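Loading example: each entry is read as two labelled lines plus one structure line.
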Amino acid sequence: MSFELETASDRAGLRRVAIDPVSRVEGHGKVTLLIDDAGEVQEARLHIVEFRGFEVFIQGRPYWEVPVMVQRLCGICPVSHHLAASKALDRVLGVHRLTPSAEKLRRLMHYGQILQSHALHFFYLASPDLLFGFGSELGRRNIVGVAAAEPEVARRGIGLRRFGQQVIEATAGKRIHGTGAVPGGVNRHLAEADRRRLAAESATIVAWARDAVQLVRRLHEADPALYDAFGCEPSALMSLVRPGDGALELYDGVLRLRDADGRIELDGVGDQDYRRIISEEVKPWSYMKFPYMTHLGPERGWYKVGPLARVQNCERIPTPLAEAERRVFRDYAGGAIQHAPLAYHWTRMIEMLHAAELIDELLGDPDLTAGERMADGERGHDGVGIIEAPRGTLIHHYTVDDDDLVEWCNLIVSTTHNNQAMNAAVRRVARQHLSGHPIDEGLLNHVEVAIRAFDPCLSCATHALGRMPLMIECLGADGRVLRTLERGA
Amino acid sequence: MTETAHFLLDGVAVPFAEGQTILEAARAAGRYIPHLCWHPDFPPHGSCKLCIVAVGGRHLSACATPATDGATVASDTPEINAERRALLQMLFVEGNHFCPSCEKSGLCQLQALASELGMTTPRFNHFYPDRPVDASHPEVLLDFNRCIYCELCVRASRDQDGKSVFALTNRGIHKHLVVNAESGRLADTDFAADDVAAGICPVGVILKKRVGFAVPIGSRTYDERPISAVSMDREEP
């Protein structure tokens, strides 16, 4: 299946412009644009150029090693992989219900992850574009520039992320790549000293997170023409919701699909049944698959995941401050579903507030510091773990043989779900802003702004923030270099 | 009063009894000499060469060299520790030692020694050998990727358990650990989880199943104390 602008009808004679790598995202990807003589974009693709292979190299490894190994997929959201794998392997061990201490400790770790990742993305990666303008001076468009122009915003952004990392460290043992969750439970309690230290600060973190929501809201309200239309492509929305009341649920729930107009199309799908509704398509020009809803097919069945999907898919948010902000967000569009990629930032900050509220509430729970940590069950062979990672729905699926070795694995990571949505946004921006204009760095950054809004984790690997090396070559139809734009590492 | 026989270890007098090796006498005196294949319950093996010391200018294995009265022994010197680091680096690249996801991390003598001796990179090209694990036994997993050929399991199974479950086969670069069964599978031997050999591996080859990361990384033996201190109390982590 090919979408409009995915493949040009006649590629001969078109000029190729590449954004390689896309900067201020996690991981490595590139965008290629094919442009005709009139300057009209005829083809636009977001390519994921890295090959990871985790699904294969954990085959033949003992299952208890998996939650620690697979989290190396990512340096930004390792907790998400750690927990999704642990959840899947809980099922293999026949553990359908964790002990109260284990579930609360895992939730606390997860909320710390949501908080730190959302803060990282907004303040470090996205805010320079939003505060200074997409085509603003390049040398200023980074976190250092934000710190110079808006020191309090930068200070709080760094503080929010630091607090989230401290929650992770207290529950997983390390800020990155810890080992708190094990199949069937957790391997530690929260130390009382850590509980007191975090609790002393959590109310301040809630207040800062609330201010961050207001900051994004003001940006939207100041320029609705840009924020509402930039890269906007309607699609369905998928996320977990809490069983029963459909509330926002980040750690454990049932899958819900809402169509582009807001009607619930699928609901209450249990995590073990994900393959009943989701299929994946492979395209030769990207290492990232394209998932779609099986019953709708690849052309109509693509969807968005992540904060924009979650905040609009749920009936409510079960913490008061975030729920109030959800209502403001909903009312901003008169109750209609919002599809604008830049609205991701607003919903991301609402979720960050929700995570801060949940942490604040949980830190008073005595089950964190005492109580049974491990549960047992009847050993099986197959398990699925689904979690709402910062970037969206994360699916881990394993089969384990009688000798305790992993036989087979399937991972659908959050960014994969958004593959078609990001490509659609890139094409929309290419049409809206690039077609017919002489291309310069500022215009190309518009394409990156659209990609960044989804907070993609392209390879699940950390890299340096700030300026990334970028070279753009404009080639003539005969392959001759017409113009080169370059910025250094 | 008779004067006790002694040698000088890095300039400090170490007394010894007749028949003691340099390593044994040093350990009895509270002085640590790095080692991997040596264990107090077994005769010297002399294969890992980590206990190398300079005696009168000659480099010898401290575990296999008898202490002699008046000898001058150098151990904790920049030159000898550099040789030890090179040996460790070779051990790391010969196998598949992925500490970040290894359940033995913090309980592994190879890792602990590398940390103690300041090995910060494997330096040499990795061999990346293809060594499938043996998970056939219901209680114990064998991960051959981490074998350093110390033969402690071979010796323990043969000399203490009386079973001879393990052996090294082939020579030189092709040397590897095998299970002494026609099928080559641990399940087809009389190996038991409470054998001495089951608990003696200094690295992460012989592992009790389903234990994994039950003890958090960060609060394990070598996370809390360096191997030079732990080794003075006991050999196993």
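The interface with chain B takes residues 60-62, 64-65, 67-69, 72, 173-174, 177-180, 182-183, 187-188, 403-405 of chain A (CB under 8 Å).
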